[in-house]
Amino acid sequence: MKIDLKQLKLQPQQSEHYSFVEFWPDELVRGLGAQFAEPVQVDIEVVFTGQTYVGTGKVKSKLVLACSRCLEPSVIQVAEELGITMIDAGSRKPEEFKDDVLVVDQGEADIEPAVIEAIFAVIPLSPLCNSECQGLCPGCGVNKNVEACRCSEENIDPRWEALKKLTQEGGEQIGRS
Ligand SMILES: [Zn+2]
Ligand SMILES: [Zn+2]
């Protein structure tokens, strides 16, 4: 995801628009339990101030994650603002910039790391298919969004309940912690 800034450098205060639509490999987000359901779309407008290249834009995509309660696929829309500051290699980072700046190497900047960061920022630690998700019953394992479970109807002695859980361990899914 490289942008060519050579033309822009010759025209300070002018802006240029760049857009990308790329299919990204799932490996990038697999560590977070996610998969891409759509290509990554980036639109960015860059202005050269004479010292820095200031890019503002948007990243869009769609991810699929397992719901942390019921384990069914849940869809996460990515629609994040992008703010990327770039400087030419070898030039001094202006003091007012505390944030990271991308280095422009031979007139080109690779904005991919900034886009990945923006996508990671929206991936929830405990994704939900829906805020009302009832999850899986810890007793019988049914998806309570789909089926009514009868565990709560039986009046179980809590000591028996603990024993029952022990004997069921291994086979049932309790969900991600
Ligand atoms: Zn769910
Ligand atoms: Zn149950």
* Average residue pLDDT: 87
| Main pleated sheet | 6 strands, mixed
Give the percentage of residues in beta strands: 25-35%
Uncertain segments are none
Overall form: elongated
Which small-molecule ligands are present, each listed once? zinc ion
Count the helices. How many?
A: 4
The structural class is alpha+beta
Radius of gyration: 24 Å
Question: Which tags fit this structure?
Answer:
binds zinc ion; six-stranded mixed β-sheet; 177 residues; elongated; 8 strands; two-stranded antiparallel sheet; 4 helices; alpha+beta
Q: Any overview of this molecule?
A:
- This protein is of the alpha+beta class and 177 residues long.
- It has 2 domains: 2-122; 134-171, no CATH class.
- The chain has 4 helices and 8 strands.
- Strands 2, 3, 4, 5, 6 and 7 form a 6-stranded mixed β-sheet that branches. It has a two-stranded antiparallel sheet with strand order 1-8.
- The two termini are 35 Å apart.
- The mean pLDDT is 87.
Topology:
Layout: E1 2-4, H1 6-9, E2 15-22, H2 27-30, E3 34-36, E4 40-48, E5 53-66, E6 73-88, E7 102-104, E8 108-110, H3 112-122, H4 158-168
Parallel strand pairs: 6-7
Antiparallel strand pairs: 1-8, 2-4, 3-5, 4-5, 5-6
This protein binds zinc ion (2 copies).
One zinc ion binds at residues 137, 139-140, 142, 149, 151.
Q: How would you concisely characterize the structure shown here?
A:
This protein has 177 residues and is α+β, with helices and mostly antiparallel strands. It is 17% helix and 33% strand. The strands form two sheets. Strands 2, 3, 4, 5, 6 and 7 form a six-stranded mixed sheet that branches.
